Amino acid sequence: MTENISLVEAFKQTKYQIAGNGKRDIQVLKEAFDQVDRQQESDIYGNGKIIEAFQEKMATYLGKESAVFFPSGTMAQQIALRIWCDEKGVKKVAYHPLSHLEIHEEDGLKELHYIETILLGEEAGLIELEDVQNLEEEIACLLLELPQREIGGKLPDYQTIVKISEYCKEKGIRLHLDGARLFEILPYYQKSAAEIGSLFDSVYISFYKGIGGLAGAILAGGKEFTQQSKVWKRRHGGDLISLYPYIISADYYFDKRISKMEQYYEDAIELAALFNSCPSIQTKPAVPVSNMFHVHIAWPKEQLEAVLEEIYYKTGIGLTSYLRQTNQSSVSFEVSVGDQYNSIPRDKLREVFQLLQVKLK
Amino acid sequence: MTENISLVEAFKQTKYQIAGNGKRDIQVLKEAFDQVDRQQESDIYGNGKIIEAFQEKMATYLGKESAVFFPSGTMAQQIALRIWCDEKGVKKVAYHPLSHLEIHEEDGLKELHYIETILLGEEAGLIELEDVQNLEEEIACLLLELPQREIGGKLPDYQTIVKISEYCKEKGIRLHLDGARLFEILPYYQKSAAEIGSLFDSVYISFYKGIGGLAGAILAGGKEFTQQSKVWKRRHGGDLISLYPYIISADYYFDKRISKMEQYYEDAIELAALFNSCPSIQTKPAVPVSNMFHVHIAWPKEQLEAVLEEIYYKTGIGLTSYLRQTNQSSVSFEVSVGDQYNSIPRDKLREVFQLLQVKLK
Known about the structure:
- 2 copies of one chain form a homodimer.
- Chain A is an alpha/beta fold.
- Chain A is 45% helix and 16% strand.
- In chain A, strands 2-8-7-6-5-3-4 form a 7-stranded mixed sheet, with helices on both faces.
- In chain A, a hairpin with a 7-residue loop joins strand 9 (281-284) and strand 10.
């Protein structure tokens, strides 16, 4: 994906943006630290009140025995899979063809852990119970990503997860949750994180998606599992002397936004409907099941960029900073609803979509 | 090493401490960020002004083509060795028996990178040219740690490094510098970081030792090398969306303390002499060659703890928060001189060592 500088520029100059929680600037850190006592002691190599208290809070939230804070999900998830592979003595796992591990991590799982992967299910779909049942090779662990981000954030129905979980337990396959956006799907399922967590042997969550923190992740599971994950965290170079910049901000924004997930979800449904009211536009999913969806527009990239720039300058509302070309005459972009959507005046929002309806005709 | 709670407590209550740059508390972050504009944009996955400008500054400082910021030295150094091993197709490296990689990283190099290691030289000594010349097996890379931290911070004479460097170049062995304390040795050698850096193919430096930042490291070398290191950084889970909490503090404390290294070095010589004036005490090295040294005291651990506690409460000066037992009747601890030493009133300092002289008789 090559960036279009003038679209980025036009987007940056908008007063309102439909997605996200705001700019990723130093203010994000400063706001989280404004209330923190200067004398509070740092965590030291995984120990200390700051890190231990937050780990405990997240373990409870996820209904797990124990939790470990990691600098990144990439690190946390590779480690989870490695532990389950070593446990079984089988260096093979299965996940969706568009899993983060498959397409965004430079093959760390293979290059560092020598773990083989089986890609389960269709790219455009979800992993189904039958896919798991039809596995011909033995695997140590199955990774499910909820929601499946790269296809717009689709979700299986809850009973499918329950059945996959039961099947895996029966077959001695560990089930790991890529819950980078777990908070964001709770309103759809009307389940607690602990209820969903109970279906998995290990759970990873992230603090800079819906939560809007700086970075950082939690890996949760049984005590023996998390104890091993600390050893691997050190091996990966993730056992930093001080992780508190991420922990304090994760904790702060968790408290600030965790109760807003229902609102983001409802806003996403409304916003997707607005997009779907325009010619040539389809969202995936058609009706979002979390705060996220993908917008597909059947227009050539360069022509649409010109249209969007004009709309941004005219209305002061930014819809996206980029367009990803899906084929010669079609593009897409991702929307994750956060705090910003609700700050847009309703008449401005109506204006931008009326304009879009006219321009895309 | 088991912590003695009452010694830790007595140490915490002292007004002055002889070593370090002060408490590792939130103030360290806040001071670095107080002057930073709230609107400044975050780095994003290794890109952006904040990270690129600092990498360039450090590349120039180290006299290298290019530099990459890492969350930790553990990650940076394993990656450096992996790159050199892959280049040569030989998965073997050599380093000192007390290298950080050998004793503090849970064997990450072996468990993640499947790299074999040859331990070169005696535990209590340094790697000499002859050790390298006598290597019987082919290695891809030799790692030198300057100063050799675990033996109190010893240094080879400069010509030894030059000769090892020449020999390695001749034999096609890559030379990597573990420069966790590189800043701290420049006054002894009276060389610039770039002069020392020119003897090595790759250099790692750290920002939370003498510099006193939060965490973080730089890995520097040729462009092709650092480019590859970015791919490995992602694989390790170190390519965080935002690393700026570490970068901004590293930059801030680098500017604040880089010119003080000569002072720390001179202070360390003075302080070591004070310790050596006491019965039963010997520092290693006897005369420091950087800001650090180890203090060895021929006393049983528990008895000495009681003595130290008494001295701390009486004088308000803390010498160490821990004692490491080296044998039944001897202990040691590490001293790294920083800003704090010079804030101690001279008469208080005299008092504490006079007291120590009396008590250790």
